[in-house]
Design brief:
Protein name: GTP-binding protein
Number of strands: 16
Order of helices and strands: EHEHEHEHEEHHHEHEEEHEEEEEEH
Pfam families: cobW, CobW_C
Strand content: 25-35%
Function: Zinc chaperone that directly transfers zinc cofactor to target proteins, thereby activating them. Zinc is transferred from the CXCC motif in the GTPase domain to the zinc binding site in target proteins in a process requiring GTP hydrolysis.
InterPro entries: CobW-like_C (IPR011629), CobW/HypB/UreG_nucleotide-bd (IPR003495), P-loop_NTPase (IPR027417), Zinc-reg_GTPase_activator (IPR051316)
Largest sheet: 8 strands, parallel
Distance between the termini: 29 Å
Length: 306
């Protein structure tokens, strides 16, 4: 079968350098690869389609100021046309906000594209000064921008204090789900090799944030591919039974696809909390406890799938 087109989204808040990041990748493009670019016609900085076309890269501009206005039929039709006409190796999509970024991923995973498209590494560019600012961190839009990506790019690091960078590193390392890569750059310059980083965690893995120690805690993570829905009632029963299955439970977090939506669940002080999230890479569950049967946990999770 022919290779699928790898699609990369570049998201981020206003003024952080998304356009510059995309230009930096285009400047490094291998001559052997064929790329196409999708941008919004009126971005905060904007990309001159004529200039990019001079580099031999077809550019599709979607009118309306932001891709979120076109994450339905217009977006899908634009992607479909580019795939048919150009048959590119990669498609780069500059996203000007998060709500549409998650919507674009959903559109790319629709049945019409399942034979032609692979959602590859998704990038979000952030300014560390904003990232550590509670006023930004509390905004759902900003949380979703950070949550959707595989690669978190800290730009404008030359404008940050040592304390701001240290706080950024600490908070970025604690993100859930964890990022495939966290990088610090100047002038939003990305490395071409980051396009091909591994974005899928193993089906079963040990938590990287919990080194082996004498405290006696166990850790385990489980992943399930996007496209597999969980049954809400079965998942609820799993949550209810978990304290009995995991002795000395201290942490349990999960992101699950349920009826086409994505829900983040967190166990704190014996209670579960739930929120919708923009994460789209996979469903996953992680726990830390004194003792548990990982095989039984995995069996129960599989049983909760639709």
């Amino acid at each position: 079968m022919p290779a699928k087109t790898k699609v990369h989204l570049i998201s981020g808040f206003l003024g952080v350098g998304k356009t510059t990041a995309l230009k930096s990748l285009i400047a490094q493009k291998r001559p052997s690869e064929k790329w196409v670019v999708v941008v919004n016609e009126f971005g905060e900085v904007g990309i001159d389609g004529a200039v990019l076309t001079q580099d031999g890269i077809p550019v599709a501009e979607i009118a309306g100021g932001c891709l979120c206005c076109a994450a339905g039929a217009d977006m899908g039709d634009t992607v479909a046309a580019l795939l048919k006409e150009q048959r590119p190796d990669r498609m780069m999509i500059e996203a000007s906000g998060l709500a549409h970024a998650a919507g674009v991923i959903d559109e790319l995973r629709a049945k019409r594209f399942e034979q032609d498209v692979e959602v590859a590494a998704v990038f979000t560019v952030v300014d560390p000064r904003q990232f550590v600012n509670p006023d930004y961190a509390r905004q759902p839009l900003y949380q979703d921008q950070v949550g959707v990506c595989d690669v978190l790019v800290a730009s404008k690091t030359d404008l940050c204090t040592a304390e701001q960078l240290a706080e950024f590193r600490e908070k970025a390392a604690a993100l859930f789900p964890p990022k495939a890569k966290i990088v610090e750059v100047q002038n939003a310059r990305l490395s071409l090799e980051w396009l091909d980083i591994a974005v899928a965690e193993k089906p079963r893995y040990r938590l990287k944030t919990l080194p082996d120690s004498s405290m006696g805690y166990q850790s385990q993570g489980f992943t399930f591919p996007a496209g597999r829905d969980f049954d809400g009632e079965k998942l609820t029963r799993f949550f209810d039974d978990l304290p009995q299955m995991a002795e000395g439970l201290v942490r349990a977090k999960g992101v699950f696809q349920i009826l086409g939506t994505w829900v983040w669940l967190n166990w704190v002080d014996g209670q579960w909390g739930a929120n919708q999230v923009a994460w789209r890479r996979d469903s996953r569950f992680e726990l830390i406890a004194k003792a548990f049967d990982a095989d039984e946990i995995e069996k129960r999770l599989h049983a909760a799938l639709e």
